[in-house]
Design a protein that fits this description.
The protein is mostly beta strands. The protein folds into six domains: about 90 residues, Immunoglobulin-like; about 100 residues, Immunoglobulin-like, CATH 2.60.40; about 100 residues, Sandwich (Immunoglobulin-like); about 100 residues, Cadherins (Immunoglobulin-like, Sandwich), CATH 2.60.40.60; about 100 residues, Sandwich (Immunoglobulin-like); about 100 residues, Sandwich (Immunoglobulin-like). It is built from nine helices and 53 strands. It comes from Chaetops frenatus. It is found in: Cell membrane.
């Protein structure tokens, strides 16, 4: 879209520099064939090529006007033409038009001389037509507005000639018309004017002073043609080397002598300097005997008239012990096997001292106690060799310092540090950080979860120290513990392979192996013991009453006191620890205040003494809960019957406990009926009792005459247990019942007399 909206043509306009703000440049709408409404609707705007916007577009008229005054010399300097480029962007559709405005020069600058007074020194011996170059004036304008020609004021000795350079610039040459005579006129003064080509033209003026120099007919003469001196190389900067001297027979300025270093090398000019008035030659920097042993300096003496003469200075540099020995390594084995034998060559090096004589003689030694030594091969040539066996695990690398010392006074020394790294040999097996690793994993933990990490280290390096972990296969016939966990070969992370049941597997051991990557590989073993942590994944299981029975029946005599043991709920939990700690509570009871249960024992006891007003049948729901998180529970249902004897107990147990629950109102209504019936029966019962006693006495007399004497047989605890009476219930031994039967009894029922209660003095009868 952008490419289709671009136009290759470039609109070109021009505007003079320094144009006022708002000055009209062109009507771009007309040039582009657009109306003001189109410019406004399509949001026409200008995008400059540079950072600053010098033009502004009127969207209503399409006029391009000056936004800010422009100085051509500031924007373009001497470059011509001076172009300011921009783009006009239109939207809907997107179009771009390129344009450039040429900034035309105006004559707003006059030529300017850098110095308002120009001084020329010309000897009176100068011949006519000699040309002298003058300082040029500067005009920042271009074209015709720039500097065009020079002129001078009227005088009898000179005229000016304007010359043109290749770049178009103009400069002035002063031409001598006739010979100068210092005795007639010692100085000539006139003005020079530089004029540009603007309309109107601008100009700049400067004053020229020509000083006529006297003729010098005597040259200076040095006291010696060659000066020879010696300087120690450790002489400091600004040390005096020598003083040269010359004299001139002329008087005045022609007899004044100035000294200088003439046609010397760059090295001489950087090393020596001379005082132009006194002729003292001093050092600009210290000398170095090893770099240069002798210097030759040419000195020139010039008088005030420009005549000069020369002499030579020879500087001999004296050697001092200012250079320390230099250790030059010619061959270095930076890596060395730790199994290298003694006398293995590690490095070859030379020792050099740039001084001479005793200052240049050297000795070499190895600093510190190291398993290396230095052997002399030839003059100033040495070898560094091993002196004993090496062990990389003790020292991985050696920084060997070779120290060289000369025999100067004072002696100087230098040292060179060599870094020798030992290459590893697989001579160390991996070592576990622990002989036995104990890790804990939760039962039912999903496969793939990390339960710990093994760690073994190998003091070797590289592949020899790369430890890989693996499980050692279990012997045949043992628990396949390797199927429970896996070990990451690289990191040693132990992960579970499948969920485990604490109730089946509480702990297991497996052997792990750590082997390095050497050749041959070395290895070590450790024991991994994994302990399975119990989770509360088993609910309590009821042993008594059995969970498959709808309700367990229990008998409680009406005379039971508070704390009487009714039943005992027995439950177990397959979990361990806190998850297997069970607590018992009554979740629901027909009469909540009559019974209570032991929190931890599960024993159901009466909370108070049983009364006649208590209902004959009760239903208890016991909640058994463990202490896991979250806790699990089970419930047991116990049916309790309040009885006066065992016959009544059978009758009570033969009915549904729920059917015996009658409203209190019905009992009150029947109470009156019972009382009336009782009054009617009292008289009859009295008569029947008297008749029964009489009949009973007569019957006993006849039976005793016919049968042997009665021998009652009482069944002890053992007998009851053997018949299943004492062992099947939930009553404790302290609450077993005593029952006696006569051998001659013809009745098939037995009577409950009383419980055998424990007492400090023994069992009751």
């Amino acid at each position: 879209l952008c490419a289709s909206g671009m136009r290759a043509e470039t609109a070109r306009y021009s505007v003079p520099e320094e144009a006022e703000r708002g000055s009209f440049v062109a009507n771009m709408a007309k040039d582009l064939g657009l109306t003001g409404e189109e410019l406004l609707a399509r949001q026409a705007r200008l995008v400059p090529e540079g950072e600053k916007q010098y033009f502004q577009l009127n969207q209503h008229t399409g006029d391009l006007v000056v936004r800010e005054q422009m100085d051509r010399e500031e924007l373009c300097g001497q470059s011509e033409p001076c172009l300011l480029r921009f783009e006009m962007l239109l939207e809907s559709p997107l179009q771009s038009f390129r344009a450039e405005v040429r900034l035309t020069d105006i004559n707003d600058h006059a030529p300017v001389f850098l110095n308002k007074e120009i001084v020329l020194k010309i000897p009176e011996s100068a011949v006519p037509q000699t040309r002298f170059l003058l300082e040029s004036a500067h005009d920042p304008d271009v074209g015709n507005n720039s500097l065009q020609h020079y002129s001078i004021s009227s005088n009898e000795y000179f005229h000016v000639y304007t010359q043109r350079r290749n770049d178009g610039g103009r400069y002035a040459e002063l031409v001598l018309d006739r010979a100068l005579d210092r005795e007639q006129q010692a100085e000539v003064a006139f003005s020079i004017t530089a004029v540009d080509g603007g309309t109107p033209p601008r100009s700049g003026t400067a004053l020229i002073r020509v000083v006529v120099l006297d003729i010098n007919d005597n040259i200076p003469v040095f006291t010696r043609s060659v000066y020879k001196v010696s300087v120690a190389e450790n002489s400091s900067q600004d040390t005096l080397v020598v003083v040269v001297s010359a004299r001139d027979l002329d008087a005045g300025t022609n007899g004044e002598i100035a000294y200088s270093l003439f046609q010397n090398s760059e090295e001489n000019l950087q090393t020596f300097e001379i005082n132009p008035e006194t002729g003292q030659i001093r050092l600009k920097k210290p000398l170095d005997y090893e770099e240069k042993k002798i210097y030759e300096i040419d000195v020139q003496a010039t008088d005030g008239g420009g005549l000069s003469t020369h002499c030579k200075v020879e500087v001999q540099v004296k050697d001092v012990n200012d250079n320390a020995p230099e250790v030059i390594i010619t061959s270095l084995t930076s890596t060395l096997s730790e199994a290298a034998p003694a006398s293995t060559v590690v490095a070859l090096f030379n020792v050099r001292d740039r001084d001479s004589g005793d200052n240049g003689r050297t000795t070499c030694e190895l600093a510190g106690h190291q398993p290396f030594r230095i052997t002399l091969l030839a003059a100033d040539a040495y070898a560094l060799v091993t002196s004993e066996t090496l062990d990389r695990e003790q020292v991985e690398e050696y920084n060997l310092t070779v120290r060289a010392r000369d025999e100067g006074s004072p002696a100087l020394s230098a040292s060179k540090t060599l870094l020798v790294r030992l290459l590893d040999v697989n001579d160390n097996a991996p070592t576990f950080t622990q002989a036995v690793y104990t890790m804990v994993m939760s039962e039912n933990e999903p496969a793939g979860r990390s339960i710990g990490q093994l760690s073994a280290t190998d003091p070797d390096a590289g592949e020899n120290a790369r430890v890989r972990y693996a499980l050692v296969p279990s012997p045949t016939g043992t628990l396949a513990a390797a199927s429970f966990v896996s070990v990451d070969a690289e990191s040693g992370t132990v992960r579970s392979l499948r969920p485990l049941d604490y109730e089946k597997v509480r702990a297991f051991e497996v052997t792990v192996c750590a082997a390095d990557g050497g050749s041959p590989a070395l290895s070590a073993q450790a024991v991994l013991r994994v302990v399975v942590r119990d989770e509360n994944d088993n609910a309590p299981v009821l042993l008594h009453p059995p969970p498959d029975s709808s309700a367990a029946g229990e008998l409680v005599p009406r005379w039971a006191p508070s704390g009487y043991l009714v039943a005992k709920v027995v439950a177990v939990d397959a979990d361990a620890g806190q998850n297997a700690w069970l607590s018992y509570e009554l979740a629901k009871a027909t009469e909540p205040g009559l019974f209570r249960i032991g929190l931890h024992s599960g024993e159901v006891r009466t909370a108070r003494a049983v009364t006649e007003r208590d209902a004959a049948r009760h239903k208890l729901i016991v909640l058994v809960r463990d202490r896991g998180q979250p806790s699990r529970s089970a419930t047991a249902t116990i049916a309790v019957a309040l009885v006066d004897g065992f016959s009544d107990a059978f009758h009570q147990l033969g009915h549904d406990p729920a059917s015996g629950e009658q409203p209190q109102v019905a009992e009150e209504q029947m109470l009156t009926t019972y009382l009336i019936a009782s009054l009617c029966c009292v008289s009859s019962l009295f008569l029947l009792s008297v008749l029964g006693l009489t009949t009973n006495a007569l019957c006993k007399t006849r039976v005793r005459a016919e049968l042997p004497p009665p021998s009652p047989s009482c069944y002890a605890d053992g007998d009851l247990a053997s018949n299943g009476v004492g062992s099947m219930g939930t009553l404790s031994p302290a609450y077993r019942y005593e029952m006696c039967l006569t051998s001659g009894s013809g009745r098939s029922e037995f009577r409950c007399l009383r419980p055998v209660l424990a007492s400090p003095h023994g069992h009751a009868e």
